[in-house]
Amino acid sequence: MKIILTNEVSGLGTAGDVVEVKDGYARNYLLPRGVAIRWTKGGEKDVEQLRRGRKIREIASIEQANDVKAQLEGVTVRLKVRAGSGGRLFGSVTPADIATAVKTAGGPDVDKRRIELGNPIKSLGSHRVSVRLHPEVVANVGITVDAAK
């Protein structure tokens, strides 16, 4: 099935890309989540608009990505969250929480969709997350999760 991606999908493409995928993957996963639309001739016109929007948000060059990487890795990010007595969180830390904390700590604006958590952060302490700035540049950011008083 031919589809148009409306959001970035790891291993498949970015917003505005027209890709060919298996029917079941599109029908059962991509379309219900809203990360893709069916390809049509009318939809092809929407692709240009998606690409323009992506170009505005996108980090254009590797040099620019390396600059943002240096800024991110130089920032100390602290999150205050509610936790139980054993150090377990009530819920987990989300990419949106991390993006907000990076901005609050004086770092650059980071799109929450570019933050990759290996496993959900559900405990207090130090954690590392990856931020995919460019296909060739990944920044590793240290996050310290503290209990809110």
UniProtKB/TrEMBL annotation:
<dbReference type="InterPro" id="IPR000244">
    <property type="entry name" value="Ribosomal_bL9"/>
</dbReference>
<dbReference type="InterPro" id="IPR036791">
    <property type="entry name" value="Ribosomal_bL9_C_sf"/>
</dbReference>
<keyword id="KW-0689">Ribosomal protein</keyword>
<dbReference type="InterPro" id="IPR036935">
    <property type="entry name" value="Ribosomal_bL9_N_sf"/>
</dbReference>
<keyword id="KW-0687">Ribonucleoprotein</keyword>
<dbReference type="Pfam" id="PF03948">
    <property type="entry name" value="Ribosomal_L9_C"/>
</dbReference>
<comment type="similarity">
    <text>Belongs to the bacterial ribosomal protein bL9 family.</text>
</comment>
<dbReference type="InterPro" id="IPR009027">
    <property type="entry name" value="Ribosomal_bL9/RNase_H1_N"/>
</dbReference>
<keyword id="KW-0694">RNA-binding</keyword>
<dbReference type="InterPro" id="IPR020070">
    <property type="entry name" value="Ribosomal_bL9_N"/>
</dbReference>
<dbReference type="InterPro" id="IPR020594">
    <property type="entry name" value="Ribosomal_bL9_bac/chp"/>
</dbReference>
<feature type="domain" description="Ribosomal protein L9">
    <location>
        <begin position="13"/>
        <end position="40"/>
    </location>
</feature>
<dbReference type="Pfam" id="PF01281">
    <property type="entry name" value="Ribosomal_L9_N"/>
</dbReference>
<protein>
    <recommendedName>
        <fullName>Large ribosomal subunit protein bL9</fullName>
    </recommendedName>
</protein>
<keyword id="KW-0699">rRNA-binding</keyword>
<comment type="function">
    <text>Binds to the 23S rRNA.</text>
</comment>
<dbReference type="InterPro" id="IPR020069">
    <property type="entry name" value="Ribosomal_bL9_C"/>
</dbReference>
<dbReference type="GO" id="GO:0005840">
    <property type="term" value="C:ribosome"/>
</dbReference>
